[in-house]
Specification:
The chain is globular. The strands form 5 sheets. Strands 2-4-7-6-5 form a 5-stranded mixed sheet, sandwiched between helices. The longest helix is centred in the first third of the chain and has 20 residues. α8 packs antiparallel against α9 and α20 packs parallel to α21. Helix content is about 45%, strand content about 15%. The chain has 4 domains: about 150 residues, Orthogonal Bundle (DNA polymerase, domain 1), CATH 1.10.150.110; about 90 residues, Beta Polymerase, domain 2 (2-Layer Sandwich), CATH 3.30.460; about 80 residues, Beta Polymerase, domain 3 (2-Layer Sandwich), CATH 3.30.210; about 240 residues, Metal-dependent hydrolases (TIM Barrel). By secondary structure, it is α/β, with parallel strands linked by helices. β5 and β6 form a beta hairpin. The N and C termini lie far apart (about 60 Å). It contains 24 helices and 18 strands.
Length: about 575
């Protein structure tokens, strides 16, 4: 049974959740959460690394103890420590932690005092009024819990996994299927190809020689736990993770039409089919057909679009949000590409909660042919991360200046990820902020303010002339934490008026801004920064997820500030 990185990271997350509910030492909990992120962010399989004899304790943030636990999960498919914790604490409690209203202490109180062990128990306790009677809860909290439980159940009805997890599940399967004798083309369509933040299932299209043993090989894959259906040209299986995979064999003559059809979205396909009807054509997964039912196109997607007088439309744009109309008018955007990015503007070092020093990060940036990389450690408000006060930041500024004097091909920018305090002030004084090249500002605390207060707080912070980039603007964690309540439209307008940029946080847990708001920022004239929020060197490669998000938001090279040269970028950060 293959063990994927996402399996290991999920085990560590569950351990962290249960330890937190149990009231364990915060640093111990954080070690498991950090380890989960390290494993998930690796560019290769930990199982393959172990098989190749690599020592995982050499990885930053792992160490001997955690390396041994990774080995245990890979070898046995489970972790004894987690099994023991599940005997002490109901594992269903971790589901309750997904509600943004409730932290570990409150979940523990619900369990200890009301016997709540599941979402259903929580709903009953809130509906009966028991929750508001607990210390630290109250009527508003009880009502908020009921609202979040309702949304949680709706979300569970359409279970979707993060894009990075879908990649980790799909990659080995595709590699496995490619080894089938006679296979020619193989591609994953659907929301995966459109690079949506989450994926519900996988649609895999294959062209192959007649007689290829593809379906037999599919159902024999080690990760398959259930065969829903098996045929000569289509099979559906369920992977151990619960992910459904549909594999279809399509004729070469229909490959482009099938790829277009199964990539979607439904709204996009309907718009294209309407254009076809107006030309007495019919489009389906088998091709484009005229009134005589003769196939006139279908080998490539370009052929399909050409039949309705459209240029090729990139998959990320196919959401039914005006892309066909833009194509008709010749106004499709020339979407940004990863190669356009000249540097990363949100990176952490070991001075706070990162895992590398300045020189290591400079070398990593140079390997990626970056012109610049911004060092943006946390400010002092984030005490858990040992955030920088003005004195320590001053020392880091000096250290960066000294290192820049030795670097030839890259420049480290002096920055900070600075907390926006509840009253809208910034976490550090202006006399140190003015010494920096840029300031990345964010909300980490007091996320439960009303929509009006949260919006006003952030706009008040933007009034400070040393506010350059608003980081992860809604604070969401995909499938883990809802965005805080804020008027993003107002923030975009305020950013435009003040010369502030918005961040697309490229970490696959965040991908914040959403594509919708990226597009709105472009319409208003607000530029964005695509940054990784990297805490480890492998995280720097997350930049591609941020570019995916930018493309879904119709962004072009000129819409993104870190496509600029160093000189032009520094000019942009000098607010007038």
């Amino acid at each position: 049974m293959p063990i994927h990185n996402s399996d290991v990271s999920e085990v560590f997350r569950q351990v962290a959740d249960l330890l937190e509910i149990q009231g364990a030492n915060a640093f111990r909990v954080r070690a498991y959460r950090d380890a989960a992120r390290v494993v998930e962010g690796l560019g290769q399989s930990v199982a393959d690394m172990l098989e190749g004899g690599e020592d995982l304790s050499d990885l930053q943030g792992i160490g001997k103890d955690l390396a041994g636990k990774i080995q245990e999960v890979v070898d046995t498919g489970k972790l004894g420590q987690l099994e023991d914790l599940k005997k002490e604490i109901p594992p269903e409690l971790t589901q309750i932690l997904k509600l943004s209203t409730l932290g570990p202490k409150k979940v523990s109180a619900l369990y200890q005092e009301l016997g709540v062990t599941s979402i259903d128990d929580l709903k009953k306790a809130a509906e009966s009024g028991e929750v508001k009677g607990l210390k630290g809860f109250g009527k508003k909290t009880e009502q908020k819990i009921l609202e979040e439980v309702k949304k949680f159940r709706a979300d569970q009805g359409e279970r979707r996994i993060k894009l990075i997890e879908a990649e980790q599940r799909a990659g080995p399967l595709v590699d496995y299927l490619k080894k089938t004798k006679g296979v020619k083309d193989i591609v994953i369509a659907g929301s995966f190809r459109r690079r949506k933040e989450t994926v519900g299932d996988l649609d895999i299209l294959v062209t192959c020689k007649k007689g290829a043993n593809l379906m037999e090989r599919l159902v024999s894959y080690d990760d398959v736990t259930d065969v829903v259906s098996k045929g000569k040209t289509r099979s559906t299986v369920i992977l151990r993770s619960g992910l459904q995979v549909d594999v279809r064999v399509v004729a070469k003559v229909s490959y482009g039409a099938a790829l277009h059809y199964f990539t979607g979205s439904k709204a996009h396909n309907i718009a294209v089919r309407k254009l076809a009807v107006g030309r007495d054509l019919k489009i389906n997964e088998y091709g484009v057909f005229n009134k005589k039912d003769e196939r006139v196109a279908g080998r490539t997607e370009e052929e399909v679009y050409a039949q309705v007088d459209l240029p090729y439309i990139e998959p990320e744009l196919r959401e039914g949000t005006g892309e066909t109309e833009a194509a008709q008018k010749g106004k499709l955007p020339a979407l940004i590409e990863t190669k356009d990015i000249q540097g990363d503007l949100h990176v952490h070092t070991k001075e706070t909660d990162g895992h590398h020093d300045l020189k290591e990060l400079a070398d990593a940036g140079e390997e990626r042919n970056y012109q610049y990389m911004a060092i943006t450690d946390h400010s002092k408000k984030v005490s858990m991360a040992h955030g920088l006060d003005a004195k320590r930041l001053g020392k880091q500024i000096d250290a960066i200046d000294r290192l820049n004097g030795k670097l030839k091909n890259i420049r480290l920018l002096k920055g900070i990820e600075m907390d926006i305090l509840e009253d809208g002030s910034l976490d550090l004084p202006d006399d140190i902020l003015k010494e920096l090249d840029l300031r990345v500002c964010s909300v980490h605390y007091n996320t439960n303010l009303s929509r009006k207060k949260q919006t006003e707080r952030i706009i008040r912070a933007m009034d400070n002339p040393y506010f350059n980039i608003f980081a992860h603007p809604t604070g969401r964690l995909i499938n883990e934490r809802e965005p805080y309540d804020v008027d993003v439209e107002e923030l975009i307008k305020a950013a435009k008026e003040r010369g502030v940029f918005l961040e697309i946080n490229a970490h696959p847990d965040r991908l914040d801004l959403s594509g919708r708001y990226c597009k709105r920022a472009k319409e208003v004239g607000v530029r964005v920064a695509i940054s990784t929020d990297a805490h480890r060197i492998p995280n720097l490669d997350y930049i591609r997820f941020g570019v995916d998000q930018a493309r879904r938001g119709w962004l072009e090279r000129e819409d993104v500030v870190n496509t600029e040269s160093l000189e032009d970028l520094l000019t942009l950060f000098k607010r007038k």
